[in-house]
Amino acid sequence: MIKTILVPTSGYDTDESVFATALGVARPLGAHLNFYHLRLSACEAAVRSPHIQYCAGSTISDALHTLGQRDEQLSARALKHFEEFCAHHRIEVSSAPTDGPKVSAQFSEETDHADSRFPFHARHSDLVVLGRRKNVDLMPYDLIELLLVGSGRPIIVAPERSPANVTDTIVVGWKETPEAARSLGAAMPLLKLAHRVILVSIAEDGDSLPDSLDQLARQLLWHGIRTESRVLAAKSEPAPVQLRGAARDAGAGLLVIGGYGHTSLRESVFGGVTRALIEHAECPVFLMH
User: How far is the CA of 157 from the CAs of 24, 52, 286, in angstroms?
Assistant: First the structure.
């Protein structure tokens, strides 16, 4: 069951696709959206700003003043984005459960300690929806990895543009790994909503993929989920290109994956298939560690 969704809010234009993706997931589930903005004090922002170390004398004071103004502006814009989004989509603003299966939302913000605050709030949510890493807001560059490792919750990484319908068609990129199995289990509430679920695997030497996908299809059928299966032949194209192509060809609104490539999560997310899909897939990517 997915009833609470954490939506980190930057105050930048990237909020638009993140908000749309979060709403695309929340609406059919009647879930609550917690829009969360983390402010940075001038001192912590300075630590995260590489050019500050080259300042001296009065330029340090000027730089700290600029960072403080920037924080004020981002906080105001984050709140404005939230208010306009809720007004446009007629979302009830509430911090407590509402009557009936409808979307509700709230806005909250705190200051500093990103490395501990984000995982804390993620652990107390059912799902996290965030954007691709940009680092323009001076948040941790490895925030996606931080949440995957530190929260124990699934995340969805929104693309530059969110699809019109996130749960209409879902592609599951399957590999015989614990990470893929955990992602599949966490995505079950969304798979049950989908009109079409496509299981996709890439053949590798020694793999018995048809048997694997047949078993997976039988497992999902017990949950009332009918699926299609596709085995992609191993070829010169990299695996992420093939999976992105399969999702694009199917018109998928969501791609569910586990950690592919190396056993180390850091290598898997930032050096292999998973990293490429997170950064370049045309649709939102759902994954769990």
Answer: 13, 30, 7
Instruction: Give residue for tokens 């993620």.
Output: 122
Q: Each residue of 17-32: b (16+ CB within 10 Å) or e?
A: bbbbbbbbbbbbbebb
Across 32-59, average pLDDT: 74
The verdict on domain 169-287 having CATH code 3.30.230.70 is no
Phi, psi of 153 (to 5 degrees): -115, 155
**Fold held by 4-158:** Rossmann fold (3.40.50)
Task: Kindly report, residue by residue over 77-98, the tens digit of the pLDDT.
Answer: 999 999 999 999 999 999 888 7
Residue with tokens 């850091």: 266
Per the document, the length of the chain is: 289
In the chain, the amino acid numbered 118 is: F
Q: Residue 266: pLDDT band by 50, 70, 90 thresholds?
A: very low
């890493």: which residue's tokens?
133
Its pTM surpasses 0.85: yes
